[in-house]
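In keeping with the milestone schedule agreed at the kick-off meeting, the structural modelling team has produced records for the first pair of proteins. Each record is given below as a sequence line and a structure-token line. The laboratory manager (R.T.) confirmed that both were archived under the project's standard naming scheme.
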Amino acid sequence: MTQPSEPSNIPVLTALTDEQVSEYLLSHPDFWNDKLELLAKIKLPHDAGGQTVSLVERQVAVLRKRNVEVRHRLNQLIENARKNDVLFEKTKRLTLNLLNTQQLDDCLDALFFGLQHEFDIHFSQVLIISEMAQNISVPANRQARLVEQSQIDEYLPRIIKNRRAICGQLDKNEKEFIFGSKASEIGSTAIAPLYFENQTIGAIAIANKDPDFYRSSMNTLFLNYIADILSRLLLTHLKK
């Protein structure tokens, strides 16, 4: 009869996982200090082919690549900062010109002139709800016109509901409502609501011939800022 084997006191060794080795080396950064001979023997495959390089050479290559990536990101940040400085100066000039106007038509003229000459915007249009403009019949500038509240609700419900600018392509009816005879030339559009203290005043729209120029992923901070300034000025001029 076979006797049952007694439990062995010899520990069973299990293979270490990659994660365990990595965790150990990360928590013991001085591991290689007294193992220079072993370090020199370690060879790693080179990224560009079948050749092998030492661990130190591989580390140098990795650090060099990271340095290039950091420099690239830094250059992007510097370029973005430069563009933002230019945008800020243009926005400041437009804002000051708007604040210096005394009449509605002067305000609209300054707006459209700035959008075209400062920002090279192909098309721009301001829609003013007629109920808010009881003291005027028709704006002198043809890039602004009076519309009914019901029309705004029908064609631009998204910006009225969300109170934020939107970018992208519009359908045929929306383009015709906003840009009239210029609708066939419109590729993409950015639209922001004009409102102040829960009073909807209308909307401002800018457009480009390129269908991909204004995209839904774009930052609308600039347009929302201009819309906020314009809303307050329009309300002041409309109440005169």
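The second protein of the pair:
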Amino acid sequence: MIANYHTHTWRCKHAGGTERDYVEQALAAGLRILGFSDHTPYPFPNGYVSGFRMAPEQAEDYFATLADLKREYADRIEIHIGVEAEYYPAHFDALLRFLSDYPCEYLLLGQHFTDNETDGVYSGRATADETVLARYVDQVLAGLDTGKFTYVAHPDLPNWQGSRRVYERHMGRLCRKAAELGVPLELNFLGLQEGRCYPNRDFWRIAGEVGNAAILGCDAHRPEALNQPRTEAAALALAAECGVPVLETVPLANPF
């Protein structure tokens, strides 16, 4: 593994360590590329404050701190600055306008909620309701159609408890759209380490049949998460089992 594009910071309220700690750990792990992609600030109306992302007023410090590290470590590691964002149709254009004031290099599509967060459901909630799964996939497809996202983070986040036939029908739509657009899908290390419902073997079997490419993503919320060889080996074994090629690096899609 030479590149990780999925790295968080303390600003999201559920990660720890300094930005420099992450960079030093990445160097110790032999990474050549480190992308920071903390949970994006979203300019929600009506005073709503999200509990799992940085606040809009923290964006300036986020980008300035990482830009300084990017310059300082330029001869040792390639650092990129992005955000992990949901596609919220009511607020996405406002998000892009907000981010355009900063040196944001890429977006990861991590669809944690359906609809617009305040009126949707958590995508990882256990469900056998086909409308919830279909809505998740529809929204990911709409996000991909914008052309603004570099890859789909934890695409298999939904904790589906219903029929495999229904799961294959909807997740097949996601995989086919990603393959059509040439957008990689992330094999997520955090899910492996914590025994979450993802990575989902059924999902990756579909991806192998469709012909999707994967990218490894640490989803690092602690610096030490950037140096997990056993987790990497497990992710590579799953990809090999399902016939999914794993990319070493990905081109960054221009979010603007």
